[in-house]
Amino acid sequence: MYCLSTAHFALSLQQNLIAFFDQHAADGGLTILNDQGHPLVYCQITIEVINCLLSDSIVCWRTWVLWGRSYKVIAPPALCIIGGFACGIGVIRAFVISPPGEAVYSPEIVRWFSGIASLTCIANLYAVSAISYKAWYVINSLRVLKNSAQGHGYHRTILLTFIESGAVYSVALVSLVRSARTPLSYEEQDHPGSIMASSRHPEAYVRVAKPSDNAAVTRVLTRAFAKDPAMNWYGGVTKLVEDINSPSPTDARSMRNLSWFQEALVRLTVLVDGVVTVVAIPRTDTKANPPAGTTTGEDTPDEEIVAVSLWLPPGKTLDVGPVTVFRSGLLKVLTGWGYGGVKRVLFEFSPAVERSLEKSFKARGLERLESWHLLTVVVDPDHQKKGYSSMLMEEGFRRTSPKPVHLEATTPANRDIYAHLGFEIDEVHQFGVGQVDKDGIRAKGEAATGYPEWIMTKVRYPSSQLLICNLTTPASPQWST
């Protein structure tokens, strides 16, 4: 037990060093401290479970010895230990299969923890009671036989009984269980009022988008990017959208303009032979209407699109000719964002990103056009924190491996998630300085700090990801526009 405790302490120290020195945990966001799917985390949990079962077994053994090696007496705590072993396996498994960014702790882990905590408390309370009674009985009998009762003998009897029974450990264990609180995920720390209400839909699955999904895909992208600083900067937004479900007239206009851009981006991705994938779940409300300011249309009758990703394969870019621009509907974006929006996208953002990519790929000895470009991966705000983005990323890595993948992250939270998935930061750009604030909203003076954007590239695939990536690669979509 001492060796296990030492190993646990060493892992905990390594976890904190990584979190505060490598991942800058003081700045918030997803770190190894609140990422339950990290190997260091579930290794510590494994040690804790083993230590707990060993401690319970020792207490049970002491009960067995003091009660004359009677197996009947230790049957209840022994059954609790067996049940605790099963719950311990469940806890460890739940940690191991957790997707990146999953709440610490997820509902499944809380259930397994509750099981093992309840069983170990019952086993300890039973064993302590049995040992205490036997110790008190023996000590009291010896005192009577020796006829040596003293004024302080009663207190000494209580003290010896308390120590002999192992009650100190049991009381500490029960106090720990009672005082435990479920920490929040990194997303919940940033948004205290937002708590995970439900888990991933059991029938959710990833598929390539169909032409009939166009409106639904655009709607998800628009809702997910309604408050994104980059999109606000592109569109010259003067006021942050407050409620995407019931937008004000000004917010509805901003979302409408954004939907035109997202629709054009989806069409353009398909026109250059890119890949659009979605997470679909069974539809629960066939009469639900999209909020004002978004493109309307029909989903697959029995399915709802809850997450979307856009991928450009190696050798493909969005640098296209006028015919493709016309077919994609990008000209419509001009009526919403105006020349200023097009200028920000084409002449300020894109060249800076390309320079960073060229420099980083050259430093690695790689060709920039021999990589995949993850344009975006988003989840509808009503379905976030359920692991849908992880589903899209896992499916995407099957397609991209072993080629590099690059992307742009516009928020610290997204940056941290991508870093967890193996993306490395190539360069950080501060866009819109002197024009917008940190949310991409028009501002002046000291408030016009601009917003950061991280250029990131994934070059290496862990062996576990390579095993998954060797599976059959899904075909590219055939989407007529």
Structure description:
The chain contains 15 helices and 7 strands. By secondary structure, it is of the alpha+beta class. It has 2 domains: 189 residues, no CATH class; 265 residues, Aminopeptidase. Strands 1-2-3-4-5-7-6 form a 7-stranded mixed β-sheet, with helices on both faces. Strand 4, helix 13 and strand 5 form a beta-alpha-beta unit. The C terminus is likely disordered.
Summarize this structure as a short list of keywords or feature phrases.
481 residues, alpha+beta, 7 strands, elongated, Trichothecene_AcTrans
Protein topology:
Blueprint: H1 2-22, H2 39-66, H3 75-96, H4 107-146, H5 153-164, H6 167-179, H7 186-190, E1 205-208, H8 214-224, H9 229-235, H10 249-271, E2 275-282, E3 303-312, H11 322-328, H12 330-364, E4 372-379, H13 388-400, E5 405-409, H14 412-420, E6 424-431, E7 451-458, H15 463-469
Helix pairs in contact: 1-2, 2-3, 2-4, 3-4, 4-5, 4-6, 8-10, 10-11, 10-12, 13-15
